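Case study 2.
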Amino acid sequence: MRTALKYFGLWLAAWLPLACSSAEPLAEVKKAVAEKRAVLVDVREQGEWDAGHLRDAQLLPLSRLQENPRAGANLPKDRPVYLYCRSGRRTQIAAKILQEQGYDARSLSAGYKELVREGFVAAGR
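Prediction:
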């Protein structure tokens, strides 16, 4: 049942409009994260994270968040939480879950590779 819900969530995300995505330019997001005025969260799965992630990001897999909506309890509620994944689709589901918990969660439509191309620093660099 859990797997079916996971895949339904991914299917639903594919049909959600990207209007839910953050409108801030990536340069502003990068600056806010660097200045600790915002938090960057990777909602990909552990294996994707292990293959490469952004230096300033925290890991919160969407699957874990779907199983336990309070899994993000260590995230700050007083700052924006920018979410990224591979292509930007899973972030919309994660943002909705976190917003229901009172977070200022913002979905980035840019995926991991695009963020690196835009100057976000990959871990290990």
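The chain has six helices and four strands.
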